[in-house]
Amino acid sequence: MSAIPAEAITAESKADTVGQYDDLVNAGYEHGFVTEIESDTLPPGLDEGVVRAISARKGEPEWMTEWRLAAYRKWLEMPTPTWAAVHYPPIDYQAISYFSAPKKKEGPKSLDEVDPILLETYQKLGIPIEEQKALAGIAVDAVFDSVSVATTFREKLHEAGVIFCSISEAVQDYPELVQKYLGTVVPPTDNFYTGLNSAVFTDGTFVYVPKNTRCPMELSTYFRINTPNTGQFERTLIVADEGSYVSYLEGCTAPQRDENQLHAAVVELIALDDAEIKYSTVQNWYPGDENGKGGIYNFVTKRGDCRGHRSKISWTQVETGSAITWKYPSCILRGDDSVGEFYSVAVTKGRQQADTGTKMIHLGKNTSSTIVSKGISAQHGQQAYRGLVRIAARAEGARNHTQCDSLLIGDKSSAHTFPYIEVKNSSAKMEHEATTSKISDDQLFYCRARGLSEEDAVSMIVNGFCKEVFNELPMEFAVEAQKLLSISLEGAVG
Amino acid sequence: MLSVKGLKANVGDKEILRGLDLEVAPGEVHAIMGPNGSGKSTFAHVLSGREGYEVTAGSAMLDGTDLFELDPEERARLGLFLAFQYPVELPGVNNMYFLKAALNAIRKSRGEDEFDAVSFMRLMKEKLKVLHLDDSLLKRPVNFGFSGGEKKRNEIFQMAMLEPKLAILDETDSGLDIDALRIVADGVNALRSPERSMIVVTHYQRLLDYIEPDYVHVLAKGQIIRSGGKELALELEEKGYGWIVDGEAA
């Protein structure tokens, strides 16, 4: 088929236009992909027609379509947030294409076509060749090991009664669960990007752990089935029913090939009575070149709701990628005796900017929260920790401990700390510690006088600085995260 | 082993070392003594390659290699070890991990196999035994929260593990009580060998009661102004530095 007619892009949001979009989207299948990319991607731009087209393309039920449309209409009235300490040119939301069928994506055909710098990083991380291909976006043969791994994985989870699937599948197969929980932690109207995400999310992950069940393995996006490319508007929903436990790993230490500049994900966690969710992230998206050109904007909203008594939600994140990171994984401590934790390592170098932190909202009695944030800035990297601890009037006996440490490398980087504390109950116990330090010449010389190179010395000192956070990561992930940190800081000194 | 000739070095515009000569043969222990500000620590730092010093003249050869051509880590890999006067704290960096990384960096540079965890542990146990140390310091972050005595013991333990050709002990006795001093000195004595040379930099004679030097040198105003046997240290203890320093200056 030929280029998409301009009138289709600006079509009114009437029911009869949906069919038109469907034709556009589906056309590629019929015509055998003579013009693969064009025919399988919605034209740039966003209106109700596009929202309907996305929903229709995914065969969603009416309630889901309406949910998206309601979000879209609210989004139109919302302003872009400008309070974060990050700078970037205005984003033209009409210039983005909001749907792209994943399978047809034009990727490199072999490793020879992949950016050698990317390959070098894979090798340093020790990633097997087949996985390198997958990460680089090369279509991988069916013989690829992970197929069998995935199958065993799925069987084992099925036995335990754990649901782990793409959110698209969940909308089809478990509509009552999705309807009950979707948007209840992060409402579409929460902020500009959640509004956008709610309207146009393409895929993501759904997890449900039944009562009194301990999920038999770490769930990882890495082994997620049937969602090869979740795209730029990812949606994750994890529900831990009473007395259950789940640990979820998001991301990968290897830099992933990605052509979308704007990423606006939403993650919602719900822990009922006595349930625990541990959510770990390693984010290593493309940060842009040395002038900051071309990197990913990561504007993500992550929030956990300790809805039940004695529930616990723990966020651990290692953020080394993206040009701009705007991210505040938060906990609403609604249930009595519930616990929220946030452990974070964020690295900015080159021209990277990060405004990240957390919110701990204490509503229940005897709730407690811990925040440990480690920020590392090198070269021209800019970083802000922004954290809110709010103790509601009824949150008798609430406790918080906050520790945020910044490490500066070189004299052009910067770190800022913006702690917000609101206490409405006098029984609250609050502790806040903050430090800013530099890697001292003494430390470097000491290491070098023992035979270590300057780079190894920096990496060792930085890893030491981050230790409390790495200790919270699952073992394998922690090892990878350490390596990643070393690689990220290569050449950042001097 | 070590041959230093006509060494001159500045800190900023100020000349600290003004033509220092020193010859150290394998297996020898040399004590360098001198009043405050005589350049003792500067000498130790210049040899190990610390930034902030400018060598303006002279040379320092270790087994025929010009030290001033090398980065600090290259000097360490060549077999030079500096025991710090003020060992530096590395928060969060496990002491064992640090040592293993250092030892393997040195071995690798020499084309030797890197130690795996098992052989490293074995070596560590062996060295702990030689020095009569327990392993309580090893699981903690490098020097972090250590007492003064613990820091110095840790330096000696590192020296034992890295097995240098030439060890420079920079005022290792400073800040130590007599018990800690004895432990450190015993460690140093246990590491004396016909292949290993040591330069003991100290202000006071008392360390030399425990570490018996082959030679004693008096450093003043950036030069070695007198050398002798261990009896020179005793004489200094008795008379102070004034009689030599003033005598030379006159």
UniProtKB/TrEMBL annotation, chain A:
Signal peptide: none annotated. Residues 223-465 form the SUF system FeS cluster assembly SufBD core domain. It comes from the Bacteria. Pfam families: SUFBD_core, SufBD_N. GO terms for biological process: iron-sulfur cluster assembly. Residues 156-214 form the SUF system FeS cluster assembly SufBD N-terminal domain. Belongs to the iron-sulfur cluster assembly SufBD family. NCBIfam families: PRK11814.1 (NF008773), sufB (TIGR01980). This is Fe-S cluster assembly protein SufB. It comes from Lamprobacter modestohalophilus. The lineage of its organism: Bacteria, Pseudomonadati, Pseudomonadota, Gammaproteobacteria, Chromatiales.
UniProtKB/TrEMBL annotation, chain B:
The keyword Transmembrane does not apply. SUPFAM superfamilies: P-loop containing nucleoside triphosphate hydrolases. InterPro entries: AAA+_ATPase (IPR003593), ABC_transporter-like_ATP-bd (IPR003439), FeS-cluster_ATPase_SufC (IPR010230), P-loop_NTPase (IPR027417). Keywords: ATP-binding, Nucleotide-binding. Residues 2-246 form the ABC transporter domain. SMART domains: AAA. It holds the Pfam family ABC_tran. Gene3D superfamilies: P-loop containing nucleotide triphosphate hydrolases. One of its GO terms (molecular function) is ATP binding. It comes from the Bacteria. Belongs to the ABC transporter superfamily. Ycf16 family. This is Fe-S cluster assembly ATPase SufC. The lineage of its organism: Bacteria, Pseudomonadati, Pseudomonadota, Gammaproteobacteria, Chromatiales.
